[in-house]
Amino acid sequence: MKLRSAILTASLVGLPVLPAHAQTSAPPAAAPTATVPVPATKRVTCLATTASLKGQDKRDQLQLCLAQARLDCLKQAIDQKIVGESRRSFIKTCVGGDAPEPQ
Predict the structure, then answer these.
(1) For 42, which of 9, 57, 69, 84 could close a Cys bridge (C-beta 3.0–4.6 Å)?
(2) Domain range enclosing 81
(3) pLDDT for res 8
C-alpha cells in the first residue's frame, strides 16, 4: 500500500518513479582496441567496387572510377585554392597513393 501511495504522489508531482531494483550502475568504460581502422582511399574503394567484374569490364569500370576520383580530388583542391606542386601532391594523396594510373 505504501508503494502505491508513493507512486501516486510521485506521479502527481511529476517525478519519475524508479523502483530501487531498477536502478543500474553506469556501464563500464570500453576497453581500447589494439587496431585503429584505416580510412579507405578512393583507389581502394574503386578496387572494391570492381572486384566482382572480370576482364575488359573490370578494366573499364576501374578506369572510370579512378578518373571520377581524380576529378573529385581536383575539385576539392580548387575549392581549397591549392596550386602547383602542392596540388599534384594533394590529388595523389586524395586519390590514394603513388600507384600508376590504369591504361
Answers:
(1) 69
(2) 54-95
(3) 46
From 92, 60, 86, select the one nearest 73 (Cα to Cα). 92
CA angle 10, 13, 19 (to 5 degrees): 20
In a domain, 69, yes or no: yes
Domain membership of residue 78 (yes or no) is yes
Within-domain flag for 102: no
For residues 4 and 56, the answer to whether their CB atoms sit within 8 Å is no
User: How far is Cα 91 from Cα 72, in angstroms, rounded to an integer?
Assistant: 9
pLDDT at 49: 93
Q: How many domains does the chain fold into?
A: 1
Q: Are 74 and 91 in contact (CB under 8 A)?
A: yes
**pLDDT by residue (tens digit) across 27-76?**
555 555 556 555 678 999 999 999 999 999 999 999 999 999 999 999 99
Q: How far apart are CA 71 and CA 85, in angstroms?
A: 17
Read off the pTM.
0.55
| 67: in domain | yes
